[in-house]
Design a protein that fits this description.
With about 400 residues, the chain is of the alpha/beta class. It has two domains: about 15-180, Rossmann fold, CATH 3.40.50.1970; about 185-395, Dehydroquinate synthase-like - alpha domain (Dehydroquinate synthase-like, alpha domain), CATH 1.20.1090.10. The protein is about 50% helix and about 10% strand. It is built from 15 helices and nine strands. The protein has helices at about 25-30, 40-45, 50-55, 75-90, 100-115, 190-210, 215-235, 240-260, 265-280, 280-305, 310-315, 315-320, 325-345, 360-370, 385-395, and strands at about 15, 35-40, 65-70, 95-100, 125, 135-140, 155-160, 165-170, 175-180. The longest helix has 26 residues, at about 280-305. The chain is globular, with a radius of gyration of 20 Å. The chain starts with 12 loop residues before the first strand and ends with a helix. The protein binds fe (ii) ion. Fe (ii) ion binds near residues 198, 201 and 282. Fe (ii) ion binds near residues 198, 202, 268, 282 and 286.
Length: about 400
Amino acid sequence: MLPSYYEFHNPVKIVSGNKALDNLPSELELLGVSRPMVITDRGVSDAGLVKLFTSCFNSSGMTIGAIFDDVPPDSSSAVVARITGIFRRNQCDSLVALGGGSVIDTAKGVNILVSEDADDLLAFSGADRLKKPLKPLVVIPTTSGTGSEVTVVAVVTDLDRNLKMPFASKYLLPDIAILDPRLTLTLPPMITAATAMDAMCHAVESFICLQKNPLSDAYAVAAIELIRKNVIRAVGEDHGKEEIRLAMANASTMAGIAFSNSMVGIVHALGHAAGAVCHMPHGTAMNIFLPPGLEYNMKKSRDNIARLLLPMAGADIYSRTPESRRAEEMIHQLRALRSAIHDICGLPMTLKQAGVTKDKLTEIAHVAVDDPSTVMNPRDMDVKDALNILERAYQ
Ligand SMILES: [Fe+2]
């Protein structure tokens, strides 16, 4: 059934394919800029990807204004301020983010300060605090999971004030996202798996959240099918195949478009809380919490979960499963996929496997119920509910 009203917004130009990165200089020219600043991290740099990146500028007339390659795994306002200074001193006119979620969020933060000619990022924290377009931003993901290349959000930590600053604005959407499989070929199995399950979670949660709509549904279903068909190969023996990596990059971007429009739910709330309390990596948390989170949502979302059996398992299993059992079968298939991934790379499937001690569960539950991701979840969750889910996720 169509919702009586919905909005969907995705103006990001997607440039996807083998050697898509080679189009960057001409895409920057089309944006009318000539001195981009490149933001990346040590991992990307050490993997030789910055070299690959700069080589595509060799035969172009474009000059790289500055390169910053030291973004830490957890982005902070101090790093944003440091990069902002470099951007200004080198008179750059645009930004290119080459990396994973932290690099992309950092670039979004820098873009706020350099475009608003400001110094205090906190003044722009929250929803819709930006009132005009920012400088051109091109995002080139080097992981396939966060979807930040197509989302309206960013999170930057203020270490001095000890708070996470969330930002949400249509002006944080990049102008262009470039998906080039060469950039994810060297990702280790564990990171490939964890980021893939983050993308899976974006797609699944977007399909059951209250803000879902026909367009976000289409992206979510397509993403789930692509992940199901390619994730085992990407984590396992075909990790070096460009077509597999390209499929995962596309799946991640489609899942990002889906959840940027429909939001995520309690699986993300629990994951954010486990990250805050136990420093659990986000993708690991998504892998652990998705099945019990879906079981909790079954009461309100049985039909939607049942519909996801088709992309999750394929037409044969879908048609062979009685309608009344499709929701349970979908979760069963998800658990089977997790087991197969675990057998290859050891990605934890329970809190116990992830090294979380039971005494942390109450604290995680309290943090989770206050997380903004609970707002669009189909079923309310109080501390007792959260604790029940956490107990189920424990072992
Ligand atoms: Fe996520």
